[in-house]
């Protein structure tokens, strides 16, 4: 079981110098809005590669009036093994827009070295609107779930988006350069098929995962994507050829609209209640939150199974929109979890049933004070 | 501190790739301890290189002779040309000793987002080099990025008419720019696994 022993923040957001020992596997952090609860969760989310739970830029993490450098350091322990140190931040004399990692005091050789020791899964209030907003939000949500299990997915995604942006630019500036366009379309096709395959594999995996019994509704995921549809019946190479040719056919219309009409950036994710078939977009706010929590917990279980280390769970305002029975269900799920969890809320009372399993903290002036 | 000569020197050193203001200061202070033994030879070597070294008119390599020593070497296989992005890539391949033929330095890759088109690269001279019919194989060793792949596709298209055999080094090997840091074994594998 993974355990967070200590967290140090230096000039990170509203924290000048914080040293915090959570003392228990589950920690509940309360405080008024704007006190820095989410900042703390964000700091922990940055211990894994990526842009953290707000998707912020590196320069945004530095505390105002702190000189522009920042650091997050954690001491963790996996089971009975000796503790290890994981940290990130800007280098003392390096650029302020680049962050480095330290694993036991040394620069890790690859990000996979970090992924092997530490993973993180989060739920934020912004995700409450996932079912109302545009397809791009759901696609990003899905891709993040896939990345956590398959780090190569992030590279495919970045390359795909570069290829699409390049094709759009070329269609605007040199629409008749067929060889160059074909070269970019070849890349789009290759990366789009890889992305669709990664997403499809994950969706199938999650839908079929034998999950621990939970009071949360089991979610059924479905990819809405013509590329994924073809992948279900044709070899990947054939789909690549189809997509490449289809892109070549749409050059004129895409040039007119200024956007590439085919690719992995057009997919959507449909989520429904596996038991009732009710689409999440039709569900009540409470049902939606329960479905999301169900996905997050199932995702955490998949990571724990794949990596032999449970991910750290960051739940920002998880109790909002949940009725009392579902809150109880969340708390008992957390108590049975194999990894650490940080929860935030405005009101500590709500988390009272966790009293035996969690430590309680209040954010006060950039410090954490033990409550109760 | 230290007068205008030193300040000027530090400013110039700070513009050297890999150095910043702090390391430039350190380097200059170190050099100033041995003006005769280290500083003057460095200044003379720089002046000599700046005067003598030119881009090879055939391949784009840097050398003090033109055509460069590689292009002028009769023992090399003049039927094979390996196309690379930069002179640094050329030197990395050369250090590994895996390529028996000649080179061609493109000067980068096509980049729709960066505004680099075919006319900004050393492409026309490459097409001219294969015209006489002596060249039998072109090996494209460009980066495995989107732009590198698009450039490879573009060149394959343009070279098709010449009848020359065009191959690419194995995909998935991080090359181009990264060529410099690859160990020789990886390079040799990449070059052998071309198709
Ligand atoms: Zn030459």
Short structural summary:
The complex is a heterodimer of chains A (372) and B (195). Chain A is of the alpha/beta class and 372 residues long.
Explain what you see.
Chain A is of the alpha/beta class and about 375 residues long. Chain A folds into two domains: about 1-125 and about 315-345 and about 355-370, 3-Layer(aba) Sandwich (Rossmann fold), CATH 3.40.50; about 150-210 and about 225-265, no CATH class. Chain A is built from ten helices and 13 strands. The mean pLDDT of chain A is about 90. In chain B, α7 links the parallel β5 and β6. Chain B is elongated. Chain B has a four-stranded parallel sheet. A two-stranded antiparallel sheet of chain B has the order 1-2. Chain B is built from eight helices and six strands. Chain B has two domains: about 5-50, Helicase, Ruva Protein, domain 3 (Orthogonal Bundle); about 70-190, Dna Topoisomerase Vi A Subunit, Chain: A, domain 2, CATH 3.40.1360. The interface between A and B is medium-sized, with 19 and 19 residues.
Percent in strands of chain B: 5-15%
The largest sheet of chain B, given as strand count, sense and whether it forms a barrel, is: 4 strands, parallel
N- to C-terminal separation of chain A? 26 Å
Please state the average pLDDT score of chain B. Answer: 88
CATH architecture of the largest domain in chain B: 3-Layer(aba) Sandwich
Helicity of chain A, as a percent range: 25-40%
Helical residue percent of chain B? 40-55%
The strands making up the biggest β-sheet of chain B line up spatially as: 4-3-5-6
CATH class of the largest domain in chain B: Alpha Beta
Instruction: Work out the radius of gyration of chain A.
Output: 22 Å
Shape designation of chain B: elongated
Give me the number of helical elements of chain B.
8
């Amino acid at each position: 079981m993974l355990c967070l022993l200590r967290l140090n923040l230096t000039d990170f957001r509203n924290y000048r110098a914080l040293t915090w020992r959570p003392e228990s596997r589950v920690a509940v952090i309360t405080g008024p809005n704007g006190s820095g609860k989410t900042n703390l969760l964000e700091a922990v989310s940055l211990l894994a590669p990526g842009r953290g739970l707000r998707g912020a830029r590196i320069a945004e993490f530095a505390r105002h009036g702190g000189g522009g450098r920042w650091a997050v350091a954690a001491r963790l322990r996996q089971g009975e093994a000796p503790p290890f140190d994981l940290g990130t931040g800007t280098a003392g004399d390096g650029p302020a827009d680049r962050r480095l990692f330290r694993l036991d005091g040394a620069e890790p050789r690859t990000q996979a070295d970090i992924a092997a020791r530490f993973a993180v899964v989060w739920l934020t209030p912004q995700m409450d609107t996932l079912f109302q907003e545009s397809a791009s939000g759901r696609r990003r949500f899905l891709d993040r779930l896939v990345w956590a299990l398959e780090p190569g997915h992030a590279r495919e995604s970045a390359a795909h988006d570069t290829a699409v942006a390049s094709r759009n630019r070329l269609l605007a500036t040199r629409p008749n350069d067929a060889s160059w366009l074909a070269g970019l379309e070849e890349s789009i096709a290759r990366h789009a098929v890889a992305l669709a395959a990664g997403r499809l594999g994950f969706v199938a995996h999650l839908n079929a995962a034998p999950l621990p019994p939970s009071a949360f509704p089991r979610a059924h995921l479905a990819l809405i994507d013509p590329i994924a549809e073809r992948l279900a019946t044709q070899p990947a190479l054939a789909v690549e050829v189809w997509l490449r040719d289809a892109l070549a056919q749409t050059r004129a219309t895409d040039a007119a609209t200024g956007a590439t009409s085919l690719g992995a950036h057009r997919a959507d994710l449909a989520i429904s209640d596996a038991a009732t078939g009710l689409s999440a977009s039709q569900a009540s706010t409470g049902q939606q939150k329960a479905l999301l929590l169900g996905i997050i917990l199932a995702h955490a279980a998949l990571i724990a199974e794949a990596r032999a280390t449970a991910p750290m769970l960051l739940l920002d305002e998880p109790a909002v929109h949940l009725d009392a029975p579902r809150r109880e269900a969340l708390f008992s799920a957390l108590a049975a979890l194999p990894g650490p969890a940080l929860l935030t809320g405005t009101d500590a009372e709500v988390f009272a049933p966790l009293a035996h399993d969690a430590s309680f903290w209040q954010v006060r002036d950039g410090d954490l004070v033990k409550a109760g | 501190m230290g007068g205008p000569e030193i300040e000027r020197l530090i400013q110039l050193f700070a513009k050297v790739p890999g150095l910043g203001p702090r390391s430039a200061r350190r380097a200059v202070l170190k050099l100033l301890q041995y003006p005769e033994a280290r500083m003057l030879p460095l200044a003379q070597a720089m002046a000599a290189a700046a005067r003598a070294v030119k881009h090879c008119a055939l391949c784009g390599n840097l050398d003090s002779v033109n055509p460069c020593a590689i292009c002028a070497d009769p023992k090399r296989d003049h039927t094979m040309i390996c196309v690379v992005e930069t002179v640094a890539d050329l030197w990395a391949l050369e250090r590994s000793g895996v390529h028996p033929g000649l080179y061609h330095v493109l000067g980068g890759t096509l980049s729709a987002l960066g505004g680099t088109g075919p006319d900004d690269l050393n492409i026309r001279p490459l097409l001219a080099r294969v015209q006489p019919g002596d060249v039998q194989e072109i090996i494209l060793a460009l980066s495995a990025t989107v732009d590198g792949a698009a450039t490879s596709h573009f060149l394959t298209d343009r070279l098709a008419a010449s009848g020359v055999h065009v191959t690419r080094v194995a995909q998935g090997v991080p090359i181009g720019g990264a060529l410099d840091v690859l160990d020789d074994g990886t390079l040799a594998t990449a070059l052998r696994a071309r198709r």
